[in-house]
Design a protein that fits this description.
The structure holds two protein chains of two kinds. By secondary structure, chain A is mainly beta. Chain A is 4% helix and 55% strand. Chain A has four helices and 41 strands. In chain A, strand 28 and strand 29 form a beta hairpin. In chain B, 19% of the residues lie in helices and 26% in strands. Classes of the chains: A mainly beta, B alpha/beta.
């Protein structure tokens, strides 16, 4: 461990020791109910926070909440709820007394989540964040009937998904999912595979999400490795107060190719999915359990899959201050393998030799967390998670396997002092990989972080943070990293705020990037154990506006990457290997806006992202990045029970790909801009039944994103959900 | 107002919806036949690493030296375990092409991963082991020519490791 990293660990440790374990003060309690101001109905899930403290809670199924340990005297309460205008007011807390209040929230037209936890590892309003954060609401996900969450991510400005590999602001290209530069979290805990460092989207439940939060920009100052380009945090739905059982049945159909020469299968391409879920509460306990199965023949040969999963969540409220949560997810997946098409003449066919290639892939996630609000100024959180992945290839030329385990535990403390709110923590993780494709390896990571938010004035916040990481693989390759970050947010008015931030981030090379030795099709991959971590320095400035009917955000950003790890071909033997080859500079602008049209109930949203991704070392553009992305959505409620939506996505064609560039002499490997239209509809005839319809790629537009892999054709999906 | 918005939306997506994206390609295809041993196995010299189908535009200046520089496109690497296999090459119509099978003295994946410039600078990497012959005069070079947008079929090639160049 380098000397500077040791000093950072000691410094953060000392800061922790200086936090008092408890604070002695005169306190009282607050008991209240949150209601819709127009209908007087309870608002379960409303978030109540006591300003200037670490205290906060959510309203239960009856809209009621209880907060104790509030310091006596005048306190400011803020109440937030998706689809409602924020309320902020003062109350007087008296020693050993409980104050009862009723809070009325006024509905707004827009239903975008505004309270997020990813930017600062605790609740903060987007308009007060020093960094760009995007959100996707539960309803936005549900109405598109996605198979996996990655399908809804491209609707966010700054987010691109290329062949299943997500990148934020152009951070990643495409390397068959290996070495993600975006950290994926589920409820704040990492779920990246520890062998290939990639994201398994099927390991994220798509129908149990409260919201998705996307931190755009470097997140290593809080989250460490892999948060080089940003962080995606999937927040799962809380357990409801009322016992509930739901059945979801979903069917889909891929339209056959329009051209006779592209037909690859006579049978119709039907997809299917069902999920059975039950949640119940008893006293202080809450339980949520679900089982499901999904299958598809795919829209191309060997694109089939069959999966089943079990999911569980348990909650125990020891008191209003102490809570335990546990989460479990198990999935068995078997799917065909498709590397590239047979030929441009038969783009939906797999190469003859590869027909029948498949792989099995099992995942297991388990997490346990504990949170304790010790006092108005001090709270702790501890969590531990296990993520196991195991795959086995059954390819005609390759039968490899890998089993990986990662265990992560983290302690976090939030401490309020004066005008400061400090967050600090320690994180320890260990990995073990048993495989023939990249042999057996083990490693660990030690990290300590500290972030302070300083309220200079009522409108101006300054945030500074630092994280030290020490990683070791096989006790022979050691990496020490220090990642600082600084940011500020200034509220020009209650509606308009400005922000700016500057931060450093890093990613340690994955085991797959260092040690893969295999052959797939005619591509031979060789190891390179001498890889170094890739790093970035990123800055952004942004502006956020929100009122009842308009929500707008604009940001400009510049990121300089050093030692980017990219797959390369060795000229001496033609083998592919990963190497730190590239210094890159990515600049860009992103804009998003949601608004409601006056006098009619139509809501629209628009987002645009411009990227200028330059490979500085080679003086060319970086591969697999869209320069322009434009998304336009319309939500048209035809009545209270019927809803209709139209989405349009435009993505400019890649200016560079790596393996098969366009050949103008023959017309081979042509790329086209992507125009995708999709339609959604929703019908809720009663309180129990919901019907959803989705038509994706409605105009059957044919495109290639990854070379020699045709994009998905038109698909119609129907979902029926019954809740009782 | 609502009607106007719906009408505008309809017009917008009708206009953009006319864009069809990628379309079926033109080119030619056929079967490549390798010499086999008594057990039916492909006989492929150890000195060669692999083979691909490739094509050039007909040009009077073609020679063994200039051939690699003029290759327009390659097929996927051929499977050396299959005595007969189909291939497809994408090409524009209205040209005269010469189609052959090229064996490589370098690893076959280099054909796909190295830039064309660096490959064409090394004609010694390649060996022509078959070409499409005139169906009526098999001792002569055949030309592939198609004028419509269909895929030209029947461009079959038999591999011969002792081939002499026809030009």
């Amino acid at each position: 461990m380098t000397t500077s990293v040791k000093y950072i660990f000691v410094f953060i440790g000392l800061i922790f020791c200086s936090f008092p374990a408890t604070t002695a003060a005169e306190t009282g309690s607050l008991n209240g109910v949150v209601l819709d101001s127009t209908t007087q109905t309870p608002l379960p899930g409303a978030n109540i926070q006591v300003q200037g403290t670490v205290l906060g809670t959510s309203a239960d199924e009856n809209g009621e909440f209880y907060l104790n340990n509030l310091p006596s005297g005048k306190q400011t309460i803020s109440v937030n709820m998706i689809g409602y205008k924020e309320r902020r007011f003062s109350i007087e807390i008296q020693n050993h007394r409980t104050l009862f209040i009723t809070i009325l929230l006024q509905p707004t037209s827009l239903k975008t989540p505004q309270l997020v936890v990813t930017g600062a590892k605790r609740s903060i309003q987007i308009k007060k964040s020093p960094v760009s954060i995007g959100t996707i609401s539960s309803e936005n996900i549900r109405m598109r009937l996605p198979t996996t969450v990655e399908e809804v991510l491209p609707y966010q400005s700054g987010v691109q998904v290329v062949g299943g590999q997500v990148n934020i602001r152009g951070s990643s290209g495409y390397a068959r999912g290996v070495g993600s530069r975006v950290l994926l979290l589920v409820d704040g805990l990492p779920v990246l595979a520890s062998d290939n460092g990639g994201i398994y989207w099927d390991a994220v439940p798509s129908n149990n999400i409260q919201r998705v939060e996307i931190l755009k920009g470097p997140g290593s100052a809080l989250y460490g490795s892999n948060a080089l380009g940003g962080v995606i945090n999937i927040i799962t739905s809380p357990i409801k107060a009322k016992n509930k059982t739901s059945v979801l049945a979903q069917g889909g159909y891929y339209t056959p190719p329009s051209h006779q020469t592209w037909q690859w299968r006579q049978e119709p391409l039907f997809t299917g999915k069902w999920v059975l879920e039950n949640e119940r509460r008893s006293g202080n306990w809450g339980l949520q359990a679900a089982a499901g199965q999904e299958s598809s023949p795919g829209y191309f040969q060997n694109g089939w899959y069959r999966r089943w999963f079990l999911r569980g969540k348990m909650e125990y409220k020891h008191s209003s201050a102490v809570q335990w949560n546990s989460r479990l997810f198990m999935m068995n997946d078997i799917h065909g393998s498709f590397t590239q098409w047979r030929s441009a003449k038969e783009p939906f066919n797999s190469p003859i030799e590869a027909v029948g290639d498949y792989l099995t892939n099992d995942k297991l996630q388990w997490a346990l967390s504990y949170s304790n609000i010790v006092s108005a100024s001090l709270s702790h959180r501890w969590q531990i998670s296990l993520f196991r992945t195991a795959f086995r290839n059954h390819f005609h030329d390759n039968k490899t396997y890998s089993t990986s385990y990662s265990v992560t535990t983290e302690w976090q403390t939030d401490y309020q002092w004066g005008n400061h709110l400090s967050t600090g923590g320690f994180e320890v993780s260990g990995t073990q990989v048993n495989a023939d494709i990249w042999s057996t390896h083990s490693g660990y990571d030690l990290a300590a972080y500290l972030q302070d938010e300083w309220h200079l004035t009522l409108r101006w916040r300054l945030t500074a943070g630092i994280r030290a990481d020490f990683s070791s693989i096989d006790q022979s390759q050691n990496y020490a990293q220090i990642n600082p970050k600084i940011g500020t947010n200034y509220a020009l008015s209650d509606q308009l705020s400005l922000r700016a931030s500057l931060g450093r981030a890093f990613r340690t090379p994955s085991i797959a990037e260092q040690f893969t030795e295999t052959q797939q099709s005619y591509f031979e991959i060789k190891p390179n154990p001498n890889l170094s971590p890739e790093t970035s320095l990123s800055g952004e400035i942004g502006m956020h506006y929100e009122s009842g009917n308009i929500l707008a955000d604009i940001a400009g950003f510049l990121t300089q990457y050093q030692d980017l790890i990219e797959p390369q071909s060795d000229p001496s033997d033609g083998k592919i290997y990963f190497q730190n080859i590239t210094n890159a500079k990515i600049s860009g602008v992103e804009f998003s806006a949601d608004w409601k049209i006056p006098y009619i109930p139509v809501k629209q949203s628009l987002s645009y992202t411009y990227l200028n991704p330059r490979d500085v070392s080679a003086d060319t553009v970086l591969a697999y990045r869209h320069q322009h992305v434009f998304v336009f959505s319309n939500e048209i409620p035809l009545s209270r029970k019927v809803y209709f939506g139209i989405d349009y996505q435009y993505r400019s064609k890649f200016r560079r790909v790596q393996l098969f560039p366009y050949n103008p002499a023959t017309g081979a490997d042509k790329l086209v801009p992507i125009h995708l239209w999709s339609f959604t509809a929703y019908y809720q005839p009663g309180n129990h039944l919901t019907l959803r319809l989705s038509l994706e790629n409605a105009f059957q537009y044919y495109y290639v994103m990854i070379e020699r892999n045709m994009g998905a054709p038109r698909q119609i999906k129907l979902g029926v959900e019954y809740v009782f | 107002m609502m009607r106007k918005i719906l009408l505008l939306s309809f017009l917008l997506f009708t206009i953009v919806g006319c864009e069809q994206g990628l379309q079926p390609v033109t080119g030619f295809e056929g079967t490549i036949t390798f010499p086999t041993g008594d057990a039916g196995e492909v006989q492929f010299p150890d000195s060669l690493n692999g083979a691909v189908a490739a094509f050039v535009k007909f040009d009077l200046s073609l020679s063994a030296e200039t051939l690699p520089q003029k290759i327009l496109g390659y097929s996927q690497p051929l499977n050396l375990n299959r005595p007969q296999q189909p291939y497809f090459l994408q090409a524009y119509p209205d040209e005269f092409y010469i189609v052959g099978v090229i064996a490589t003295k370098i690893p076959i994946n280099q054909i796909l991963t190295l830039p064309q410039d660096s490959l064409s600078a090394h004609p010694e990497y390649f060996q022509l082991i078959g070409y499409y012959r005139n169906p009526t005069q098999p001792d002569q070079l055949g030309f592939v020519h198609f004028t419509d947008t269909k895929i030209q079929e029947g461009i079959n090639i038999t591999v011969d490791y002792n081939l002499t160049l026809p030009f």
